[in-house]
Design brief:
This protein has 152 residues and is mainly β. The chain has one helix at residues 2-20; strands at residues 27-31, 43-53, 56-65, 70-77, 82-84, 93-100, 103-110, 113-122, 128-136, 142-151. Helices cover 12% and strands 54% of the residues.
Amino acid sequence: MKKLLSLVMVIAVFCAAPALAADPIIGTWKLNVSKSKFGDASFTAGTRVYTESDGLYTLKQKLTGADGKEKSSTSTYRAGKEEKQAPGGPGDATVAKKIDANTWDFELKKDGKVVGHVHRVVSADGKTLTVQNSGAKMSGAAGDETLVYDKQ
């Protein structure tokens, strides 16, 4: 009986482990400028730091423009919920939709209207983050861009 109970416990631990695995987005990401495609403005450097607590994600982002000026922003999001954002970004609210463990879609809203979309994918190996922006961007301009980041 003890052997059976031990076997059941071992199986339970192995089955639960994938469910408890950390979200692949969590951590620090560095902009890979050579792999990124910029719209109207280019960046020379950038970082993203993602954290999560009780289902609320926080993104702290810094981008350095070709002019040497750094732009910073902080945003929060939660799957399936509209989250208000701090002033200064491209929108005043974000709606996040989790597609799968590595893929999320976001709507950026300003005064209740959608002004931009973000499609974010972490590669299967967890080493590359690709962020496709359309519409309003952090630079304040509108257009499309693809930012590629490497996990640090």
